[in-house]
Amino acid sequence: MTRTILITGATSGFGAAAVRRFLADGWRVIATGRRAERLQQLVDAHGSGRLHPLAFDIRDADAMRAALDALPDDFRGIDVLVNNAGLALGTAPAQQASLEQWRQMIDTNVTALATLTHALLPALIERRGAIINISSIAGSYPYPGGNVYGGTKAFVTQFSLGLRSDLHGTGVRVTSIEPGMAETEFTLVRTGGDQAASDRLYGGATPMTAADIADVIFYVATLPPHLNINRLEIMPVSQSFAGFQVHRD
Ligand code: NDP
Ligand code: 8X3
């Protein structure tokens, strides 16, 4: 039977790679994001038989509801939800950060993720489906300038574990995937379009790729139904841990 997956943030990075990965395996894919032209490019490349684009700002709850309500019959039975849409904005210390950027991260990474999950829970329970949330190592390991971004990802991880508890006995699986450094448009977005900063961060480091993470999402989504990976933390070999900082007078 053809299974259906909804992937948010499918216009770039992990989400776009995951769309390709699941289509290649014969799934039906609902792909969301704001940039309609990027979604259209996916349709142009893969056809619309098993791919349904939904262009909306995930922070707009009414637009989200309307998009879900308008799904064609073939795409209504969602088996897997991948909550991937998200962003970091800025690297300034909290005391210099933009409140507007903080709010955008919370609205996108936390509120929209919870809203979409809430909307799809009845259908996912009915189909004994799965929820795969894209968190981050930033939710576990603080770093200077990570402030609200890290806080939003800590929410994603803890929300995932809480969902597991609540969904006990329903057969619905929930996984928090927590990647480290991966080269996507993430740093371009975070820096307001600074390509040189993005190149400096990833240059010579052999970061993970979007396809690496898409493979991990696919692995989690296709595990035997009696297995649940609760949390999955993944880094490139070139990335590891550093020490605490000490201020001296
Ligand atoms: P990209 O910037 O390449 O992709 C982010 C995606 O999120 C885009 O498709 C974008 O679509 C979508 N998105 C952002 N804001 C909105 C919005 N308001 N409405 C709808 N869609 C939105 O980054 P990544 O692929 O790297 O990021 C994917 C996820 O992975 C994020 O949650 C990120 O925090 C997380 N992550 C990334 C890591 C990395 O190193 N790259 C590491 C750990 C976690 P559009 O702009 O078209 O709306
Ligand atoms: C993205 C990874 O370390 O840049 O979530 O915050 S990090």
Question: How do the strands and helices of this protein lay out in sequence?
Answer:
Elements lengths: L3 E4 L5 H12 L3 E6 L2 H11 L4 E5 L5 H9 L10 E4 L15 H28 L3 E5 L12 H20 L6 E7 L2 E2 L2 H5 L4 H8 L5 E2 H12 L9 E4 L15
This protein binds NADPH dihydro-nicotinamide-adenine-dinucleotide phosphate and 2-hydroxyethylsulfonic acid.
Identify the notable features of this structure and list them briefly.
binds NADPH dihydro-nicotinamide-adenine-dinucleotide phosphate, seven-stranded parallel sheet, 42% helix, 8 helices, single chain, globular, 249 residues, 16% strand, alpha/beta, two-stranded parallel ribbon, binds 2-hydroxyethylsulfonic acid, Rossmann fold, 9 strands
Architecture overview:
InterPro entries: KR_dom, NAD(P)-bd_dom_sf, Sc_DH/Rdtase_CS, SDR_fam. Keywords: Oxidoreductase. It comes from Luteimonas marina. The protein has 249 residues and is an alpha/beta fold. It has one domain (4-234): 3-Layer(aba) Sandwich (Rossmann fold). The chain has helices at residues 13-24, 36-46, 61-69, 99-126, 147-166, 186-190, 195-202, 210-221; strands at residues 4-7, 28-33, 51-55, 80-83, 130-134, 173-179, 182-183, 208-209, 231-234. The strands form two sheets. Strands 3-2-1-4-5-6-9 form a seven-stranded parallel β-sheet, with helices on both faces. Helix 1 (13-24) packs across helix 8 and helix 4 (99-126) runs parallel beside helix 5. 39% of the residues are buried. The model has no long low-confidence stretch (mean pLDDT 98). The structure holds NADPH dihydro-nicotinamide-adenine-dinucleotide phosphate and 2-hydroxyethylsulfonic acid (8X3).
